[in-house]
């Protein structure tokens, strides 16, 4: 990942803040720091392991939000949900340098993204929505898919840094478009999971070795990333994340709130995820989306 | 495909009949003939283009079913549905040599396969169910996935010939197991199609370029064969088969008849396919499964 030019020319690189040191944010900030960018990180709870991880990669740790964003040309954020983003970025209006470029990588839906873009822009800031897919592994390895909405010239400005964090960086159109594509991705992930769970359920019901579904069908017309990766976890009895069930439920709620169209399969997936989450009484914090299989069978929900 | 050993040793190769010269059967029989096997083909309507295709590849054409199966050690069939198979293979009991190995490649469901196995075996014949996936291209190129149920020793006997017709040839277990795995495959194909249609519908509704869904999301966690192949056909406005809508509806009926378990996503897919089929008034004979998109939008059903 290290580019010599960046290490050699730190003075010419944009000064970066990264807000939110969860699993994803910390890994992305660490990649920027390792690539030579001067990065200051901030997290609401300073004791988070993500803060230490970013610091170990060379990032500076800011004691407060004001300290993190002062004199920063680019401000990245990766937070929990749209309320967190509205709260943190709302403070930015008062704190950040006029004309900083704010790049939010949280999944918050196109409506919230467009609203934020409006607020920040009327305060003189610029804004890109840039949600990601690819999970913690993608964040660590810099192989995320990053879907970006906003002005083309702001995208061009952010592109070198986004390329450090992701392998596929796609400009999707005006503000909210990155979020829109991310929601389309979640539709695919959610509905494909129904397919995986029902194929495995049918196999079990009909007396077939479930592994044949994953091993034999994965390379054919029934194949999907979900089958090869999460289907395999199911037959191995591993319901841990992967992608967290509760995050998927949040993302599917965003679809309902942002789309004016009936998506019955997506709605079914949401109900199945919800049922599993409710019946797992707290253990859902440790469940991946493949735990949907628990809605189909009397498999024990394991944490 | 041509193996010199087979061309050199035709006398030692099993004599083969192939019943049913539809698109799939004709291509598979042609591959066997080209590989050096002595193949006699039969089709209920002798004028089918498939008959000519197999003959051009070196197969002999039988005037009637009795002529096709006389003195044949192996009898393959690829017919329309379970009624056709029961009717044609029912006649075999009276016609075929005792101890011929019958390999049916039609999708008929595990129940019908087990029933046929019983009938044929009580007449002294042996039976394998060996449905396929991979479509007409796979049949032509010999790259099908072939899923086989029956006795292991019969599988071993058929294996060299199945390897000529398919790239992945999988022994799935006792009689009906090949059919069972095929139905699992159809669950995946059907439900993944819901995912593709809903992701594209959401994109359209939310003002996003639909091509981004196929191009950007295909390589990630939302990716599937259905998205990369049939999703692309949808955005290109091509609703032709691929895999025929009406065949998928038949296969999903077989699931309902063979499984004693609720599969709500599969049921939803079946209803969507059915709705498209009914509203296309006869044009469904020319529609592929991706025509499901017509159930979501006011796209014109094109034939």
Count every helix of chain A, treating DSSP H or I runs of 4 or more residues as helices. Answer: 13
Using the alpha-carbon principal axes, give the shape of chain A: elongated
Q: Could you state the oligomeric state of the chains shown?
A: homodimer
**Overall residue-averaged pLDDT value of chain A:** 92
Task: Estimate the strand proportion of chain A.
Answer: 5-15%
Provide the helix percentage of chain A.
40-55%
Q: Low-confidence parts of chain A, pLDDT < 50 over ≥5 residues?
A: 1-5, 299-303
Order of helices and strands of chain A: HEHEHEHEHEHEEHEHEHHHHH
Give the end-to-end Cα distance of chain A, rounded to a whole number of Å.
34 Å
Radius of gyration of chain A: 20 Å
CATH class of the largest domain in chain A reads Alpha Beta
The helix/strand class of chain A is: alpha/beta
Largest sheet of chain A: 6 strands, parallel
- Pair of chains with the largest interface and how many residues each contributes: A-B, 63 and 62 residues
- Number of DSSP E strands of chain A: 9
Main sheet of chain A: which strands, in order across?
A: 3-2-1-4-5-6
Could you tell me the CATH topology label of the largest domain in chain A. Answer: Rossmann fold
Integer tally of domains of chain A: 2
Q: CATH homologous superfamily of the largest domain in chain A, by name?
A: NAD(P)-binding Rossmann-like Domain
Which architecture of the largest domain in chain A per CATH? 3-Layer(aba) Sandwich
């Amino acid at each position: 990942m290290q580019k010599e030019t960046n290490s050699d020319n730190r003075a010419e690189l944009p000064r970066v803040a990264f807000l939110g040191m969860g699993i994803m944010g910390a890994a992305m900030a660490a990649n920027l720091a390792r690539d030579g960018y001067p990065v200051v990180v901030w997290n609401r709870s300073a004791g988070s392991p993500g803060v230490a991880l970013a610091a170990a990669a060379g990032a500076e740790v800011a004691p407060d939000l004001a300290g993190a964003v002062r004199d920063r040309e680019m401000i990245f954020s990766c937070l929990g949900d749209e309320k967190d983003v509205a709260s943190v970025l709302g403070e930015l209006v008062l704190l950040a340098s006029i004309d900083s470029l704010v790049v939010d990588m949280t999944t918050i839906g196109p409506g919230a993204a467009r609203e934020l873009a409006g607020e920040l822009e009327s305060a003189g800031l610029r804004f890109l929505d840039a949600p990601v897919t690819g999970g913690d592994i993608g964040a660590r390895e810099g192989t995320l898919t990053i879907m970006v909405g906003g002005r083309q010239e702001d995208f061009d400005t952010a592109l070198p840094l986004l390329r450090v964090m992701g392998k596929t960086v796609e400009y999707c159109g005006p503000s909210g478009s990155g979020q829109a594509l991310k929601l389309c991705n979640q539709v695919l992930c959610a509905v494909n999971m129904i397919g995986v769970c029902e194929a495995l359920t049918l196999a079990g019901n009909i007396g077939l070795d479930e592994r044949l579904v994953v091993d034999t069908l994965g390379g054919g017309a029934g194949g999907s990333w979900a089958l090869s990766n999460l289907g395999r976890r199911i037959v191995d009895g591993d319901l841990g994340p992967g992608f967290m069930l509760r995050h998927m439920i949040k993302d599917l709620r965003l679809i309902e709130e942002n789309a004016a169209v009936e998506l019955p399969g997506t709605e079914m997936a949401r109900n199945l995820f919800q049922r599993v989450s409710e019946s797992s009484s707290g253990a859902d914090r440790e469940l991946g989306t493949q735990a949907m299989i628990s809605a189909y069978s009397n498999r024990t929900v394991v944490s």
